[in-house]
Design a protein that fits this description.
The protein has helices spanning 3-28, 32-51, 57-70, 74-80. By secondary structure, the chain is an all-alpha fold.
């Protein structure tokens, strides 16, 4: 798999995971603690992807910013995680 294809795949996976977590928070009534732990895991996975050069730090920041823009309730939980 070429580097660009790997990066695009990693970006799609991260976006899908964050969207899934945000929808869970919005629709399920899951506790903020539960979703916060899952967001923390996603944040760690993001840092690992950046460290492994699967994703640039700028792309990762933009993905998280866009998620927080679409789902404002994610922002405080991510910061608390």
């Amino acid at each position: 798999m070429k580097r660009r294809a790997r990066t695009e795949r990693t970006e799609r996976i991260l976006v899908a995971r964050l969207e899934e977590l945000a929808r869970t928070l919005e629709r399920s009534g899951a506790s903020a603690d539960s979703v916060g732990r899952l967001l923390e895991s996603a944040s760690i996975a993001t840092m690992n992807a950046v460290a492994l050069n699967l994703l640039s730090a700028d792309a990762a920041d933009e993905i998280w910013r866009e998620t927080e823009k679409r789902h404002p309730q994610v922002a405080p939980l991510r910061r608390a995680a």
